[in-house]
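testing teh design pipeline on a random one, pls ignore if ur not involved
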């Protein structure tokens, strides 16, 4: 198993819009049994994404899916930056 925990910061006031875009791919990604979005309680513009993948290759392959590429392209203009990113081994 391969895990990824990432923080993304939205531009001012756009966190809910960013969440809506990212939720479009919340289900149906091959090799991803768990994909969770959460609002950061200490930062009104930040969200956390917690992903569990069958393996690192499945995660990399997902980034090539047309639906994911489309979501990334639409999210970029309202992203202010990336926060911490952690790779984990789910147990």
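output:
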């Amino acid at each position: 198993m391969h895990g990824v925990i990432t923080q993304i910061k939205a531009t001012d006031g756009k966190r809910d819009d960013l969440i809506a875009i990212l939720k479009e791919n919340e289900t149906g990604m091959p090799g991803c049994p768990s994909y969770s979005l959460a609002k950061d309680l200490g930062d009104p513009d930040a969200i956390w994404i917690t992903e569990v993948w069958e393996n690192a290759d499945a995660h990399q392959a997902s980034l090539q899916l047309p639906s994911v590429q489309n979501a990334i392209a639409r999210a970029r203009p309202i992203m202010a930056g990336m926060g911490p990113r952690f790779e984990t081994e789910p147990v």
